[in-house]
């Protein structure tokens, strides 16, 4: 009796800012799609690293790099970079073998437009992934005035994309209600959270220089690893460092606010604060557990009350670090459900850190272990790849109509 091997499916991923594991930055798609079975994936990404301004040319069989114009702020050059990416990504889509699914991710908001067009031209299914609630997040950041002609145009584009997606993937469960309020049929919305793989976060002092050898450490070592942008609330972290001079604070990463933050720490003589450049994901995973506490901090913005799915929070927990978070709703709930740290209000970061840093070492380690188990069971890349696999498999399954394809069994954020 012969068995027939199911055909390999193809998915083409549009994400201007995607990174392979060998580079610092967003590795969500590299990690998720590599865990699928029966699917070949190609990720179309920009050749320019937004923060370092360096061109990336390292070969990777799952990445196609397209050249984009550079930019450093939020002016017209940023939009030109988006347009340049969309044009070249669409050309890649027309040259690649025909995909079964085009999977386009925000931000930026124009990439899904190119993804939809590629799907139409190649007769493929179109999945829209929402990783940032544009344009509302631009309003919250002060880059866009609510009710302005541009804001109204972008809201119309947002709704246009929602209507044309076969499925919409959200990284935060709280965004489901937002999309429904925008007129989206809830049956087309799926939740595939960000996450981390605890097995990847074992300390590797034999391969990477330990974190404690990179900076002088007194007291406990507190780490922040992530973007240094206007949404990240890092002034709150510097305020906390000023109140807790007996402990050491390390900020790893880059962003539009980094130069100003470095200047502030220098002017205020915060000698317990140290800034490190971005570190490739594999190296960061091998050194993160060398700290004592991880900090998840965000600015107090209404947009975050709709939901958030922060990679850095999952990374800390996967590395076995107890965590302080000042972000309401989902991050707050995760830390409390895992019993892995302290969750405080948006303006209470210093108090939360003071409380957690006052715990004894055994208590901190027990918190870290509970956090690691929680991520492994509920928020690992493996768990989320299963949800993505179910979504894609069902979306292209024969004998089902468009309205039924891709439906993943309902799940709560903690399940």
From TrEMBL:
Keywords: Glycosyltransferase, Transferase. The keyword Transferase applies. The keyword Transferase applies. Residues 37-195 form the Glycosyltransferase subfamily 4-like N-terminal domain. PANTHER family: SULFOQUINOVOSYL TRANSFERASE SQD2. This is Glycosyltransferase. The lineage of its organism: Bacteria, Bacillati, Actinomycetota, Actinomycetes, Micromonosporales.
């Amino acid at each position: 009796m012969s068995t027939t091997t199911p055909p390999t499916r193809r998915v083409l991923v549009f994400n201007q800012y995607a990174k392979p594991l060998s580079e610092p930055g967003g590795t969500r798609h590299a990690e998720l799609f590599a865990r699928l079975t029966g699917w070949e994936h190609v990720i179309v990404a920009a050749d320019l690293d937004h923060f370092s301004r360096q061109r990336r040319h390292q070969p990777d069989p799952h990445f196609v790099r397209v050249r984009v114009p550079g930019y450093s702020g939020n002016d017209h050059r940023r939009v030109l970079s988006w347009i340049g990416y969309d044009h070249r990504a669409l050309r890649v889509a027309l040259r690649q073998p025909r995909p079964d699914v085009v999977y386009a991710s925000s931000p930026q908001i124009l990439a899904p437009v190119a993804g939809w067009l590629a799907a139409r031209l190649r007769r493929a299914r179109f999945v829209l992934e929402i990783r940032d609630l544009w344009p509302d997040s631009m309003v919250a950041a002060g880059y866009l005035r609510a009710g302005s002609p541009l804001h109204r145009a972008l809201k119309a584009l947002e709704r246009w994309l929602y209507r044309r997606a076969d499925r919409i993937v959200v990284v935060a469960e709280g965004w489901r209600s937002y999309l429904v309020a925008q007129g989206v049929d809830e049956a087309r919305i799926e939740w595939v959270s960000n996450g981390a793989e605890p097995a990847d976060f074992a300390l590797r002092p034999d391969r990477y220089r330990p974190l404690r050898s990179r900076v002088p450490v007194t007291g406990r070592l507190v780490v922040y690893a992530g973007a240094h942008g206007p949404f990240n609330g890092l002034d709150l972290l510097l305020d906390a460092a000023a109140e807790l001079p007996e402990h050491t604070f390390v900020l790893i990463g880059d962003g539009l606010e980094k130069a100003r933050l470095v200047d502030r720490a220098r002017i205020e003589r915060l000698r317990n604060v140290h800034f490190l450049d971005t570190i490739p994901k594999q190296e960061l995973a091998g050194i993160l557990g060398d700290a004592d506490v991880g900090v998840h901090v965000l600015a107090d913005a209404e947009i975050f009350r709709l939901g958030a799915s922060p990679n850095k929070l999952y990374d800390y927990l996967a590395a076995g670090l107890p965590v302080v978070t000042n972000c309401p709703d989902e991050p707050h709930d995760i830390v409390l459900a895992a019993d892995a740290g302290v969750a405080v209000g948006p303006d209470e970061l210093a108090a939360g850190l003071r409380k957690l840093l006052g715990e004894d070492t055994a208590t901190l380690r027990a918190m870290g272990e509970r956090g690691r188990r929680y991520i492994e069971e509920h928020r690992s890349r493996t768990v989320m790849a299963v949800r993505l696999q179910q979504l894609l498999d069902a979306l292209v399954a024969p004998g089902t109509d468009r309205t039924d394809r891709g439906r993943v069994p309902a799940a709560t954020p903690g399940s």
